Amino acid sequence: MKVFESTTKKFFLASWVSINQTETSKAPVTQLNHSTPQFQGDILRPLRQRIENIKINNRQLAHRLCKLIPAQCPFERDVKLFGKTLFHIPPMCKLNPLFEEVVALRFRALCYLADECGEDISHYC
Fold first, then answer.
1. CA 42, CA 109: separation in Å to the nearest integer?
2. Domain Mo-dependent nitrogenase C-terminal spans what residues (predicted)?
3. Distance between CA 71 and CA 123 in Å, rounded?
């Protein structure tokens, strides 16, 4: 048995091109709402807002934040044995539900040190 014997031989082509423009202009326009529903019970929202509302106006606070928050994920590793890589552990920081807020806080601290204080921030990068 061959494949083309059991397949359909008729094709149906659909097109979005309208032949008569007057009929389409009279039709009511409906819009589909493709927005994703937000999770109503975000229990971390107060903590997120608290992190976002931290104002960095102190040089010592900015230095402390830059030292505490790492620039790269500390969990990412290459496991080696006798110089050969056995496996790679991927970065797991994206699993942290507050990852974006913490990274934004570190960025604001770096910007404060560079822009307001005029310090060299290359040792934090």
1. 26
2. 43-125
3. 11
d(CA 46, CA 33): 28
Helices marked H in 58-119: 59-68, 99-111
Q: What is the pLDDT of residue 113?
A: 94
Residues 6+ apart with CB under 8 A from 75: 89, 91, 92, 93
Q: Are 86 and 79 in contact (CB under 8 A)?
A: yes
Q: Of the given ranges (16-25, 55-64, 68-77, 105-114), which has the lowest mean pLDDT?
A: 16-25
CA distance 5 to 7: 6
Write down the mean pLDDT value for the chain.
Answer: 78
pLDDT > 90? residue 53: yes
Choice between 74 and 58, residue whose per-residue pLDDT is larger: 58
